[in-house]
Amino acid sequence: MGVVTMLITLGRTQSLNSSWREGQWRRLVSAALLFGLVVTPATVMGDESGAQAAGQARLANLVVQDCGSCHGLTLRGGLGPPLRPEDLGDLSVEAIAAIIREGVPDTAMPPWKPLLSPKEIHWISQQLKSGALVSP
Q1: Distance between CA 55 and CA 47 in Å, rounded?
Q2: Which of the pair, 49 or 130, is modelled with greater confidence?
Q3: Average pLDDT, stretch 80-107?
Q4: Which whole number is the average pLDDT over 38-53?
Q5: Fold for the domain defined by 2-130
Q6: Is the pLDDT of residue 29 over 70?
Q7: Which residues contact 133 (CB under 8 A, 6 or more apart)?
Q8: What is the dihedral of CA 100, 104, 108, 110, to 10 degrees?
């Protein structure tokens, strides 16, 4: 009788241990998923923001180096016309973007659409119009 009681008790103990471990496992998985839901968006947003800043720095450098080779490093003009806000006059951001995208026929101004995305062209246009890329 003692052996039978011991086996029944042992069986219950193993069953309880198994249930306890399963419960702990579920809590651990739930905690990991919750952590992922909370931390991942912040990480992705941080990476996106960092990538966006790096992309904007690259575009600003492109304006100074590539555009500046014709329009002057301070964008006051050279082979091409000046690109300072006061010189862009009544041109809208969209009109500036169209010039960058399509170029100007029969001039040295090439179309940039093969090299820049529409979003990048729009960003450059906004920066030129606002004067954000102009050095003093």
Answers
A1: 12
A2: 130
A3: 95
A4: 57
A5: Cytochrome Bc1 Complex; Chain D, domain 2 (1.10.760)
A6: no
A7: 60, 63, 64, 75, 124, 127
A8: 40
Distance of alpha carbon 78 from the chain centroid: 34
Of the candidates 80, 76, 72, the one whose C-alpha atom is nearest the C-alpha of residue 100 is 80
Q: Where are the alpha helices (DSSP H) in the chain?
A: 2-62, 68-71, 85-88, 93-102, 118-130
What single-letter amino acid sits at 124? I
Average pLDDT, stretch 64-91? 93
What residue type is assigned to position 128 of the chain? L
Contact 77/71 with Cβ under 8 angstroms? Answer: yes
Could you tell me the pLDDT band of residue 86, with boundaries at 50, 70 and 90?
very high
pLDDT at 36: 44
Torsional sign, CA 10, 15, 17, 18: positive
What's the whole-model pTM score? Answer: 0.62
One-letter amino acid identity for 9?
T
Q: Which of 82, 95, 85, 68 is nearest to 131 (CA)?
A: 85
The half-sphere exposure of 40 on its side-chain side, counting CA atoms within 13 A, is 6
- Give CA 118 to chain center in angstroms: 15
Locate the domains of the chain by residue range: 2-130
